[in-house]
Amino acid sequence: MPPADFRIASDRNKHPILEVLLKVLPEQGNALEIACGTGQHAQWFAQHLPGWQWLPSDVDADALRTTDARLATSGLPNVLPAIALDVMNTSWFAGEPPKPHFDLIFCCNMLHVAPWEACAALMRGAALHLAVNGRLITYGPYFEDDVLAAQSNLDFDRDLRATNARRGLRHLTDVAREAQSVGLALHARYALPSNNLLLVWTHHRTP
Q1: Is the whole model's pTM more than 0.85, yes or no?
Q2: Residue 50 in contact with residue 77, Cβ under 8 Å?
Q3: In this structure, are residues 198 and 139 in contact, taking their beta carbons and an 8 Å threshold?
Q4: pLDDT at site 3
Q5: What DSSP string describes 72-101?
Q6: How do residues 107-163 score in pLDDT, each as one tens digit?
Q7: Which helix (DSSP H) or strand (DSSP E) does residue 141 occupy?
Q8: Distance CA 190, CA 202 (A)
Q9: What is the structure's pLDDT at 94?
Q10: Is 99 in contact with 129 (CB distance < 8 Å)?
Q11: For residue 48, how far is the Cα from the chain centroid?
Q12: CA dist., res. 24 & res. 105, Å (int)
C-alpha cells in the first residue's frame, strides 16, 4: 500500500492538474498513465474526461493491485485494468503488434523519485508511442534556470538524495535536453500549487 502522504498528495493535486488537462486536451482520445501509484488519478481523470479511455500502468505490483482494487468499485467504463510497465525496458509493449499509440502519455511525480536514467527512458518511450499530435505531460517539482528555488523544493531534494543518491529534483534544462534528443519539445509550462510544474511535451514536427 502506498504511503499515506503519497495518497494525500495525489488527492490534493488531482484538482489543479485536471483544470489544465481540460484546457489542453481535446474532448476525446486515449491515455497511458505511467507510474499510476494509488490509481487516484486514473479514477479522477477518467471520471471527469469521459471521452478519454485511460490505461494506468506501474512497475510496482502493489501499486497495480491498489489501482485495480480502486477501479473495480468505480464503475467507470473508460478506464482499463492497470498493466505492468517499466519505462526502463526497451520495449514497453513487447509482443503486441501493431505498436500502440496514445494521444496522451501522463507521468506524475516519477522523475524525482526514479534514477535519472528513467527520464531518458520515458522520453524515448513517449516519442515512440505518442500518436501524431499526441502529448506527453509530466508533473512534479523541478529546478529551473533563472528561477529562485522554493525552500520546500530544496528541502525535498535534500531529503530524497539523503535516502538515495540517485533520486532528486531534476533541472528542467536537463529534462528538455533528453526530450530534444528524441524529437520532443516543451510546448507549454504551467505553474501549479506547492511549487510544482505541469509540462506539456510534443513532437517537434508532425508528418
Answers
A1: yes
A2: no
A3: yes
A4: 47
A5: HTT--TTBPPPEE--TTSS-TTTT-PSPP-
A6: 999 999 999 999 999 999 999 999 999 999 999 999 999 999 999 999 999 999 999
A7: none
A8: 15
A9: 76
A10: yes
A11: 17
A12: 13
Question: For residue 4, what pLDDT is reported?
Answer: 46
Q: Residue 197's pLDDT band (boundaries 50, 70, 90)?
A: very high
Q: What is the DSSP letter of 114?
A: S
* 25, part of any domain: no
Per the structure, the complete domain to which residue 70 belongs is given by: 30-203
Among 138, 155, 153, 163, residue whose Cα is nearest residue 3: 163
pLDDT digits (tens, 9 = 90+) for 65-96: 999 999 999 999 999 999 999 999 999 997 65
Cell of 184: 520532443
The amino acid at residue 141 is P
Do residues 192 and 13 touch, judged by C-beta distance below 8 A?
A: yes
Residue 184 lies in a domain: yes
**19 in a structural domain:** no
Kindly state whether residue 162 falls inside one of the protein's structural domains.
Answer: yes
Q: How far is CA 166 from CA 83, 114, 159, 183, in A?
A: 26, 7, 12, 26
CB atoms near residue 86 (< 10 Å): 14
Give the CATH number, domain containing residue 199: 3.40.50.150
Rounded to 10 degrees, what is the CA torsion of 122, 123, 127, 133?
A: 100
Number of domains in the chain: 1
C-alpha 106/C-alpha 87 separation (Å) is 12
Q: Which DSSP letter does residue 143 get?
A: E
